[in-house]
Amino acid sequence: MEKHDLNAVVDRRFDFALLFDVTDGNPNGDPDSGNLPRIDPQTMQGVVTDGCLKRKVRDYVTLRTLHDETLGEGYGIYIQLQGVLERSHLQAYREAVGLDEKAARENKDSAKTDAARTWMCQHFYDVRSFGAVMSLKVNCGQVRGPVQLTFGRSIDPIAPQEITIVRKAVATEREAEKQTESSGAVTGTIGRKSNVPYGLYRTHGFINPHLASQTGFTYRDLSVFFQALVGMFEIDRSASRGMMTTRGIYVFEHESPLGNAPAHELLERVRVEPLGMGAAPRCFDDYRDHLSVSVDDLPAGVSFYELPRQHEELLGGERA
Length: 320
Known about the structure:
Blueprint: E1 14-25, E2 29-30, E3 36-37, E4 45-48, H1 50-67, H2 85-97, H3 101-106, H4 110-123, H5 125-130, E5 131-135, E6 139-144, E7 147-149, E8 152-157, E9 161-167, H6 173-183, E10 189-207, H7 209-215, H8 219-231, E11 243-254, H9 263-267, E12 270-272, E13 291-293, E14 302-307, H10 311-315
């Protein structure tokens, strides 16, 4: 099929499966459990939230804009580290409808709110992609985004560990005095580090063309999104996350905006068999013989692509 016009709004459905793994790291700590890796307590499978993955996409796009002038001002990020959301809302009212702060706070005109919401979609990639609830005191309405992700779930149970670590220093003079009094020297500070020896995770994603038409989500935006899934771990390295890697993105493209087959039937064609009771996977190679993709008899109107290898075939342009 022909490559898509990157400036055109996405006009068909996409469903995809994403595989990623972690080696000796914590892919998504749970703040309610002392930052231990998230798990399903019934199956002991590891869990990574959709919010965690979206955060990494946002961070990738932020850095991408610093090195790719072709993206332009439409690739700002609304939900950013230490951001103040109301500032963006006030900017939207100021530039879209010419209201100052006082008038924006008092606005009850739905047409002006709609204009501010449209401005937010045009200027912020994550609003245009994921949607946002922007009905704060300075009300920019709500947006339902065309890009949706499920939680990531590990193929097999994981075995979270808490590893004791020592910092050979203390924080205050008082701590130093107490340790010197008890042991004759400053011995340091004991801490803990959470760890997953290895886990292969799978998440599903969906692109809704009807919502894309409402937010203005284009094929260029879709290309940037898939590039972010490929590269998001490469610019997010830290000792706490260990080695995280995108292992595959398996995309099903429909010819119809409504879709040509149920998503679950297509995604079930990407199979990763668990290694089973007693197995202790420690690398992706342990799963290679358990991974298969069946696309020989796809339903009419459905095309399959494996990214990043077939990125140009699907969307055109160069990969980041």
